[in-house]
Design goal:
By secondary structure, this protein is of the alpha+beta class. It is built from three helices and 16 strands. The protein has helices at about 1-45, 50-55, 70-75; strands at about 100-105, 105-115, 120-130, 140-155, 155-170, 175-190, 190-195, 200, 205-210, 220-230, 235-250, 255-270, 275-290, 295-305, 315-325, 330-345.
Length: about 350
Amino acid sequence: MKISKINRLLGIHSGLLKSSLILIPLGLPLLTAQNAFAQTAQTAFAQEDEASAMGDDEEFGMGETDDGAFEDMLSELDDYGDDDEPDLPGRPPKPRKVVSKIALNYGAKESLRWKINKQAFIDGYVDQAIATQDNPYKSPSSKFAFGVTGNYLWNGFTLTAGADFKRGYADVYGAWDGVQDATYSLGVSRKISLNKQWTLSPSLKQTTVRSDTASKDLSRTAISLPLSYAVNKRWTIKALTLGYATQTYTNRLQGQTDKTMSYSTGAAYKMSENATLELGLSRETRTSDQSSAEYSKTTITPKFDYKISSTSSFGIGFGYETHTTSKEESSRWVIVPKIQFRKDI
């Protein structure tokens, strides 16, 4: 009797074991598919013709209109590269995220402009970026920023000063990371007409970041030298844009100074008074005294920009990007829809 019960129990156990061996292989693809779908959903709704062309550099306003508003908005979404603390000796390197083949970086900006006079105006704004993946090795995140920027035109120069306050959230405005970053900036730029067709627009900008996380504090200086050639009223060749930036993290025990060089070229075609089509090719390289912060990036980006009104615009870029670090290399398609509304008061 006892032997028959034991045999029956063994038979049940054997049946469960066989079922498990069958169900586990069947379940693994389902779990893998679920994780893959979750990641694709995050990254598929995850910046800069300027973010692509100039990397971290921002472009200053050159006048009373927003001819470069779309590029400015793209550049403002940039997070100064990889601001994580580098891997420390004796510790295993931080795990990298699987890079999605398509990243969708959506952003929107609403602003109010107070025109003091013909030479001066002040912008107050709210800026959002939803589920962006600026760094392909990081999880998508959303950003919310608000701030004020002042512009003053003086003897052909544009002087700027601004303060920006930003918070980051997981995925599509998920959990707040508990950190607020404050960015203060001073800049000067000038648009120089070399002749009827050639234009040089040099700019210099000094930026200071103060964060609730001390390791993100930094001081940054950026120089940009865009040179363009107007073929006619419709075609403009963006012959060459040179950019250089150096930034130092001021509160890291191991120290970190990054230097970024960028080169870009392209062309713009004015389809109508409101619509512009552009194509840009850029190369960006960062060196650092911390190897984990080094990278190189190459981007090609066609972009369509449409002026909804004299103060508002919509744009969408579709580009291909390769990103290389000291440890790995990735490539992906990047879709960048952006919209900006501004009201003058």
